[in-house]
Amino acid sequence: MTTVGFIGAGLMGYGPARHILEAGYPLFVLGHHNREPIEDLVRRGARESATPAELAGVADVVITCLPSSAVLEAVVLGERGLVGAARTGQVLIDMTTADPRSTRRLADALAEEGVRMIDAPMTRTPREAREGRLNLLLGGTDADIDEVEPILATFSENRFRTGALGTAHTIKLINNLLSLGHAALAAEAAATAEAAGVDPGILRDVVTVGGADSRMFRMVMPYVTDGDETSLEFAIANAMKDYGYYLDVAREAGTVPQTAPAIHRLYALATALGRGGEHVPHLYDMLKGLRVG
Fold first, then answer.
1. Domain-wise residue ranges, the chain
2. What angle do CA 222, 228, 232 make, to 5 degrees?
3. 109-168, pLDDT tens digit by residue?
4. For residue range 31-67, what is the model confidence (pLDDT) as tens digits?
5. Is the pTM of this model over 0.85?
6. CA nearest 132: which of 13, 25, 49, 232?
7. Which listed residue, of 64, 200, 242, 256, carries a Cα 20 to 30 Å from 249's Cα?
8. In the beta sheet, which residues pair with residue 235?
9. Helix, strand, or coil here: 225?
10. Through-space distance between the first and last CA atoms of the chain, rounded to whole angstroms
11. What is d(CA 211, CA 190) in angstroms, rounded to the nearest whole number?
């Protein structure tokens, strides 16, 4: 049975790690600042590694689910990183929402050690992660993806092959351009409605039966109307990071982004005001507080 190493068993990573373990794969996990998911996985039979290199020394397949490309680069290339214990034939599956340029650089460094890489960013929310119903975007060779797909199938409902390495991270950023943009618009619309004396609940009722409806609108509005943020558990600082990566991709592609810079500034403002650790629906609170006069 293929031995799996998992780095990043946090809000989004815990569910996949648990489903891999429950499917019978020997699982090694790297220590995490949030001890609760790690300790739960260990109670279920996983073993904990102290460093990325130690984990790479025992795993056939390593899965990473990290906050940013900078963190991923440190895990792969840093002191006691994965490269230090890499073995020919290993596979790194990266589920981070990452900068495709960094992804390609890491893949080149890993290839020198005989390690293959697949970019496999996720869509959907922590709820679907816990339920084993994530969507995965998969960039890499068909042969490499075929080899690891049984592992990926343990925690995903839909898997989309996007092309060469890096294309999955590119599409994920474009997807987040749309989804996080819709969320920002929903928060602003609700804040404006309230400021103008319109019940946001009535706004919700009108929008959800018309052409302006979106899944992200429906994920933001439970917080606006009922204080329930569980439909969209995604940090504002991560949204800012993803928009920054998207802008880099767009500029490298030669396009001239127009709406994305404005939304990026909104997420950056919220982060600068100390709200980066809050979930995206909390944009509504910030926008309510921004008034002229």
1. 4-163, 170-289
2. 75
3. 999 999 999 999 999 999 999 999 999 999 999 999 999 999 999 999 999 999 999 999
4. 878 899 999 999 999 999 999 999 999 999 999 999 9
5. yes
6. 13
7. 64
8. 279
9. helix
10. 66
11. 17
3-state secondary structure of 117: strand
Cα separation of 220 and 239, whole Å?
A: 14
Separation CA 182–CA 87 (nearest Å): 43
What region, left, alpha or beta, does residue 24 occupy, with left being phi > 0 and alpha being psi -120 to 50 degrees?
A: left
For the purposes of burial, counting CB atoms within 10 Å of the CB of 42, is it exposed (0-12), middle (13-18) or buried (19 or more)? middle
* Distance, CA of 31 to CA of 222 (rounded, Å): 34
4-163 belongs to CATH 3.40.50.720: yes
Spell out the alpha helix ranges (H) of 97-199. Answer: 100-111, 126-131, 142-152, 167-195
HSE-up of residue 231 (Cα within 13 Å, Cβ side): 17
Instruction: Supply the CATH classification number for the domain 170-289.
Output: 1.10.1040.10
Q: Where are the alpha helices (DSSP H) in 51-119?
A: 52-56, 69-77, 100-111
> Is 4-163's fold the same as 170-289's?
no
Alpha-carbon span 42 to 40, nearest angstrom:
5
Q: Is the sign of the CA dihedral 85, 91, 95, 99 positive or negative?
A: positive
Which amino acid, one-letter code, is at 233? E
| 82 Cβ neighbours under 8 A, 6+ residues apart | 52, 53, 55, 56, 62, 75, 76, 92, 110, 115
